[in-house]
Amino acid sequence: MSINSTLQSFQRFGVHLGLERIKILLDQLNNPHQHIPIIHVGGTNGKGSVCAYLSSILTEAGYKVGRYTSPHLIDWTERICINNQPISKTELETILIKIKHSIHFNQDIPTQFEIITAAAWVYFAQENVDIAIIEVGLGGRLDATNVCDRPLATIITSLSREHWQQLGPTIQDIAREKAGIFKSKCPVIMGDVPDEVKPVFESRIKALNCPNIWVNSASYTDNNLAIYQDIKYDLPLFGKMQLNNSALAIEAIKILQKKGWKITNHHIRQGIKNTQWLGRVQWFKWRDHFILLDGAHNPAAAKALRHYIDSLGKSIIWIIGILSTKEHDKVFQELLRENDSLYLVPVPAHSTANPSELAILAATICPKLTQIKTQKTVFSALEEAINSKNSDQIIVIAGSLYLIGHFLGNLPSDTSKG
Fold first, then answer.
1. What CATH code is assigned to 282-417?
2. Who is most buried in 71, 204, 209, 281, counting CB within 10 A?
3. Phi/psi of residue 320, each to 5°?
4. 369: Cβ–Cβ under 8 A, 6 or more apart, which residues?
5. 386: how many CB neighbours lie within 10 A of its CB?
6. What's the chain's Rg over C-alpha atoms?
7. SS3 of 180, please?
8. Are strands 65-68 and 80-82 parallel, antiparallel or unpaired?
């Protein structure tokens, strides 16, 4: 069976948080997670970037590094990497078949996310990685990745109101779920979170007696290098949020250094410089035009994207598709400005918001947009946008990582990454 068909058979179980199924499944697979040192990365935005920095730095230092992230943009294999190289399709198929055969007919059937998470653990144990960088899927306390008792470090990148349908209606509820990945006496590295939830994290840290550090963002030097404490480095990922994300990664590396890991400041600088993370404030060349891609799918991510765009001093032609579950009004409030132009498109193969309904909402929120149109696909919108743009405009595709993944996965052969 193919990867898609195998995983599709578990999709019907949807999002079903809880640790009992994954623990039973991993036990049937000889508990591969118990043999792998990990850094556990939670939060709302920035998790993938922090994982990418850490993986790249540790790879540069000569370690064999597993990385598990979600969602993927184009292919399931992107989620499971060693030294930044995705697992082969053949290997993932083999592991998925093994996992499927291990499930007893009378047990509570695992979810799709639990299956792919188990596959990551199996692969990393099989390949004897030195360390795995593990991104939380949703929330934290009951997320399928939350099965290791002694992480080398735990990171919270940021926090904003998202997935409240599963995690609770208030930002404090969400914070309590995120803090559920903290473990007794294991180091916690805290990023930029709102003041009103700091007591939630502080209480959990104190209860578990966790060594902790609240990280201040890096800053830029006069010659446009980033600097964090005593380390200056090229920052290849765009946007102010990367000053926070890179600082979090450096603090995690400093914890490993204190534990005796052989990682130098040169490894940190070179590892960050070599970091790649698709679909996040990414410039892309399309038929001699540079366009900007960003998955900005919640208000905090949208605000960060707008901050970066404002630094460019251009008006924007937006091509936006959003899932039905997102806070459309708040995302639009952060993104849209007068004199911007807007195309609204569906997000294929997912629970998409209706572009026509989004158009009405956008007109209400930002009535001074130069135009609002709907298009059937991101590609037809892009063609029209390119034909209408002038030299003072930038085309930005945003609103959902799934939309970015659809775009990158269905490119004509005459395009190239910028």
1. 3.90.190.20
2. 281
3. -125, 135
4. 336, 338, 339, 340, 341, 342, 362, 363
5. 15
6. 21
7. helix
8. antiparallel
Q: What is the pLDDT of residues 182-235, one digit of tens each?
A: 999 999 999 999 999 999 999 999 999 999 999 999 999 988 899 999 999 999
* Neighbouring residues of 406: CB distance < 8 A, sequence distance ≥ 6: 347, 348, 349, 378
The total number of residues written for the chain in this structure = 418
Q: Are 183 and 144 spatial neighbours (Cβ–Cβ below 8 Å)?
A: no
Residue 360 CA to residue 372 CA, distance in Å, equals 9
Interhelix angle 241-258/265-273, rounded to 10 degrees, is 150
- Contact present, 358 and 369 (Cβ < 8 Å): no
- The DSSP H or E segment spanning 334 is helix 328-335
CATH class entry, domain 3-273? alpha beta
Tokens of 328: 């459309």
CA torsion sign, 18 to 20 to 21 to 26? positive
The domain segmentation of the chain, as residue ranges, is 3-273, 282-417
State phi, psi for 82 to the nearest 5 degrees. -125, 125
Tokens representing residue 55 in the block: 């993986």
Determine the Cα–Cα distance for residues 345 and 164; give it in Å rounded to an integer. Answer: 25
- Quick: pLDDT tens for 133-161: 999 998 899 999 999 999 999 999 999 86
Q: For residue 352, give the DSSP letter.
A: B
